[in-house]
Amino acid sequence: MTINIKQLFIASVMFASVTLHAQQNVFLERSFWKTNPDITKIKSEIQKGGNPSQLNSNAFDPVVFAITEQASNDAIKFLLSQDGNDVNKLTHDGRTYLFWAAYKGNIELMEYLLSKGAKTDLKDDKGYTVLNFAAASGQANTKVYDLCLKNGANLKKDLDHEGANALLLIAAYDKDFTLIDYFTTKGLDLKSTDANGNTAFNYAARTGNITTLKALLKKGVKFNDNAMIFASQGTRSTANTLDVYQFLEELKIKPTAIGKNGETVLHAIVRKDKQGEIIKYFLSKGVDVNQPDKEGTTAFMNAAASNSDVEVINILLPMVKDINQANKKGQAALALAVRYNSPEVVRILLNKGADVKAVDAAGDNVVAYLMQSYTPQKAEMFQAKLKTLEQTGINVAAPQKNGNTLYHMAVAKNDISLIKLVESYNVDINSKNKEGMTALHKAALIAQDDTILKHLINLGAKKSAVTEFKETAFDLASENEALTKNKVAIDFLK
């Protein structure tokens, strides 16, 4: 059993090591694909060390970026010929390339992928088939759906995790009933519902096209209070305007509606930009910012995590009963703001009494959340939040409950600049966490080269220290596939 746990840990850390340096691979930069590079350019970048099959931290790879940025199909086909780019490779959210081709309406590529054996019976992590993913994304090219149906899609049986069919999923994007009519001619019922009783009206409320909503009503499509929740969610890139919510309220749909996961309309609205007026509207209607969803997260916590608009934070604060209210993971607004939001929001929460010493259910405090927030691109924001926390008097150098020190957490980011920053604190570089690992052990597992390993040794990290499995850093480095692949000499660890 201990061997299996150990192997699982190593596998998870190795996956992290593969993705940590994704930003160094030109093929994982959207800007590269926006230039529509030809095959000669792609080959040149491969010769320079670019990896045409690498997954980034969100499981996107070069093929997905090439498809979504609409590179030429010749370039995409070349990428598909590279090792590690099997036609049924799983990428972000468990999607194969056929999903992304359908998403972009690329019929030629879809046909090519199908000719190469692309599976048509898969569902992604959201429960979408290829056809339903295209519909949920608003794909207007009905030839995409024709091709899916020709290759085994079943409109009545293929449902997402919520039990929604393609007609329901496309309803939010159909401005003139062209797509809805397409699916009704294929056998779907305009008055169908998902597993939670949501109708096409509810789904259409996401984009707030009042003309479409009125047309659905004339055709006898019903609705329920969930329409207000759907409207608050909007889409990935859109938010509804006040007149949409007022229209729904005129239909006697409750502004205080609660979704199936315990969420209010404000849980979603506070995440979006420029929503101050709408937030005030719903507060005036009695929506409670302290209402937790099933995960224990309130609308205010969502705002603290993802909305850097100080106006929004200040609108909500007077309504907050307990600024230290935590969700089921033990995360309060401050921890979420430190992890995801701006230094200014962190300062506002601290000034309003947020407990800087609070720990989550795993025993991690705000320092752990700060270290998780670090990226080289946002180093200045990291430094500002660090300074703000230090001014509260919290002991930044204290280890976490699991024994992880600043060095452990810095090594996890695989960034030499962060490690050098940690050096200014009085932290024992040879301290072991509860897994029996020192920072050097952890680095040996995830390092891409010898830079960080040698730097830790220069700082005094002991090469002779062993884990609970009696392994040294050399032993662990020997199991590091990245070091082996990159032909990095590790004898200096002996």
From TrEMBL:
One Pfam assignment: Ank_2
PROSITE patterns linked to this entry: ANK_REP_REGION, ANK_REPEAT
Keyword Signal on entry: yes
Start and stop residues of the ANK repeats: 93-125, 196-228, 261-294, 329-361, 402-434, 435-468
Entry keyword annotation includes Zinc: no
Superkingdom in the source lineage: Bacteria
Name of protein: Ankyrin repeat domain-containing protein
Signal peptide feature range: 1-22
Keyword vocabulary terms for this entry: ANK repeat, Signal
